[in-house]
Design goal:
Layout lengths: L1 E2 L11 H11 L21 H15 L7 E2 L2
Length: about 70
């Protein structure tokens, strides 16, 4: 799923278009195009609660700062 800030254009929901555009927009060969973050969730929560907790964290830490999140 692609999570977007409210001002992001709708085409960014397309994963292929998003990443192709990111790669084409950067000119430096050593540029950091993305961050990879792994999050451990409490196993005491059911799947629905884990998803809600995860999405809340992503929105609070990334989306509100204008970043796009490609979550899997």
């Amino acid at each position: 799923e692609i999570l977007l800030p409210s001002q992001a254009p709708p085409w960014m929901k397309d994963r292929e278009k998003l990443w192709n555009t990111v790669e084409l927009s950067e000119k430096r060969h050593d540029a950091q195009l993305a961050r990879n973050i792994q999050i451990a969730l409490p196993k005491e929560l059911n799947l629905e609660q884990q998803i809600t907790l995860f999405k809340t964290y992503v929105y609070d830490q990334f989306i509100t700062l204008g970043m796009v999140a490609d979550v899997t």
